[in-house]
Amino acid sequence: MPTTKKRLNITLSSDLEKVLKMSAKRDNVPQATKATELIKLALEIEEDALLGEMLKDRINTPLSKFVSHEEAWKHLK
Question: Is the pTM of this model over 0.85?
């Protein structure tokens, strides 16, 4: 059956393969599902780091304008 999800072929070292297999077995999920969960978590961590860098640059910029949390996120509603 065709899928709408993007497929990605990756090559794992034997150590990574072993850890992924054990982790998937522990959580009772397929290895592909566990790999997807781990990639998602890694990307969230990476996103946090990038946003932190952007914030650091903004804070160090003269005449930075600070806005409330609600103001900053209202365009997402």
Answer: no
CB 12 within 8 A of CB 20: yes
Do residues 22 and 15 lie in contact, with contact meaning Cβ atoms separated by under 8 Å? no
The pLDDT tens digits of the residues spanning 12-65 come to 999 999 999 999 999 999 999 999 999 999 999 999 888 888 888 777 777 767
Task: Report how far residue 66's alpha carbon sits from residue 40's, in angstroms, rounded to the nearest whole number.
Answer: 30
- Please state, in angstroms and rounded to a whole number, the distance separating the CA atoms of residues 34 and 37: 5
- The CA distances from residue 38 to 3, 13, 33, 51, 77, in Å, are 21, 16, 9, 20, 28
Counting Cα atoms < 13 Å in the Cβ hemisphere of 5 gives 7
What is the chain's Cα-based Rg?
Answer: 19
Q: Are 31 and 21 in contact (CB under 8 A)?
A: yes
